[in-house]
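Design request, tokens follow.
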């Protein structure tokens, strides 16, 4: 019988390998690459709304991928460290941002010192977590007292009426789709990462001052210039959100 620990280890290995295999074409997808101009401006506005300006604060970009969020935060004046589980993603991020430190580690076990970061940001990571409770506790540990967390994510599983009307996603690489579905069936949010559920778990991990923001209209309008009408329309109707939270200041 496979123990739960070994089973989870196998899932994490498969997740790492899946994203490693996608690294070469990751920036070709408008949903991942942040285009300079209107889209970069829209993302920067969202980040400034919740985090303010950088002023040299230490920021950890979790699941940094090819470094697009790191690039954004570097421009905003943060002292950025990127962390990702997939080495091929890190290779591309390092080539793109040679003056940023990128580390390979699991987002649930960062191996970073306690209180070593002032800000933690993630984009499209939470829905892939095997053990979000452990991850959120780890992020709380790594943040300095008074530090900020910004989670950008969504429910990419639940099909709303529009997705059902349009027939779901277009046909693509069957093998890659099957790998994706096999992984999705094993992660915590297999039924979709809803904002209220994520916020509740963050609160249980000790985060306070939680706020859910679903105002992604400006970002979606900027992305529509690069997407076909179908993908752009579906994206606007998906449950996407930002959750900002804080680690309380020690008393």
């Amino acid at each position: 019988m496979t123990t739960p620990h070994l089973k989870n280890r196998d899932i994490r290995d498969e997740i790492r390998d899946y994203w490693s295999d996608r690294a070469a074409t990751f920036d070709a997808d408008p949903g991942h690459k942040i285009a300079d101009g209107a889209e970069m401006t829209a993302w920067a506005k969202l980040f400034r709304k919740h985090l303010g300006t950088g002023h040299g604060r230490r920021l950890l970009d979790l699941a940094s991928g090819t470094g697009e969020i790191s690039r954004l935060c570097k421009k905003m004046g943060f002292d950025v460290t990127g962390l990702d589980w997939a080495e091929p993603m890190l290779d591309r991020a390092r080539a793109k941002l040679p003056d940023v430190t990128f580390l390979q580690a699991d987002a649930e076990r960062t191996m970073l010192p306690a209180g070593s970061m002032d800000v933690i940001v993630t984009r499209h990571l939470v829905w892939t977590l095997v053990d979000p409770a452990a991850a959120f506790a780890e992020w709380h540990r790594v943040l300095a007292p008074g530090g900020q967390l910004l989670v950008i994510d969504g429910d990419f599983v639940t099909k709303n009426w529009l997705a059902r009307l349009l027939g779901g996603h277009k046909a693509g690489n069957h093998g890659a789709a099957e790998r994706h579905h096999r992984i999705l069936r094993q992660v915590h949010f297999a039924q979709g990462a809803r904002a209220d559920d994520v916020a509740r778990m963050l609160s249980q991990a000790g985060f306070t001052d939680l706020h859910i923001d679903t105002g992604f209209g400006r970002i979606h309008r900027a992305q529509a210039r690069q997407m076909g009408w179908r993908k752009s329309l579906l994206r606007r109707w998906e449950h996407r959100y930002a959750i900002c939270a804080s680690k309380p200041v020690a008393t």
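Comment from the thread starter after seeing the answer: thanks! Residues 28 and 246 are 34 Å apart (CA to CA).
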